[in-house]
Amino acid sequence: MNPQPASPYFIEERHDLEETHTLALVVDNEPGVLARVIGLFSGRGYNIESLTVSETSHARHISRITIVTTGVRAVIEQIKHQLERMVPVHSVNDLTLDGRALERELALVKVAGTGEKRVEALRLADAFRASVIDANVDYFVFELTGRTSKIEQFIAIMGPLGLVEVCRTGIAALSRGAAGMIE
Predict the structure, then answer these.
(1) Residue 94, Ramachandran bin (φ over 0: left; ψ between -120 and 50: alpha; else beta)
(2) The model's pTM
(3) Which domain holds residue 83?
(4) Roughly what angle, to the nearest 10 degrees, separates helices 148-162 and 115-127?
(5) Which of 80, 82, 105, 107 is nearest to 95 (CA)?
(6) Which among 41, 66, 98 is the end of a domain?
(7) Is residue 123 within a helix (H) or strand (E), and if so which, with residue range?
(8) What is the C-alpha radius of gyration for the chain, rounded to an integer number of angstroms?
(9) What is the pLDDT of residues 24-60, one digit of tens each?
């Protein structure tokens, strides 16, 4: 028996795997640039997992945008090419392709509790190297910096101990080595 359909219009079924990529953009720091970059993603149905933005050169009015997005390889390539064509974008660097990028995230985590749960939250925070930045007899606010997986693990562990609120910055990333992005 022939495993292929009899139709002359047989189209190969593809199952491309989605990949997560961290993109670093150097852009002009002017009104509307971030909205245009975000508009590119939303207008085409691309998702942004994480987004951080800050001015990196006050004198030259340059900002760096770090975006974490997910898609099949062809979609990621399309995103990069479309970003490169935008006028206020000076450069686009896919930090994932290097495979050695340094990625960190900051989280503020509020945990409320008393008694044993309070003691356990403090003990676990110490194991994760989280700093207590605010506290009283009812709650702690921890500051934690690390890879996303570390942040997520800390949040999951604090859940049953009285997790109240979480605020995360999103990923900041740099490639390793002496070379940098053009600014």
Answers:
(1) beta
(2) 0.82
(3) 19-98
(4) 170
(5) 80
(6) 98
(7) helix 115-127
(8) 22
(9) 999 999 999 999 999 999 888 889 999 999 999 999 9
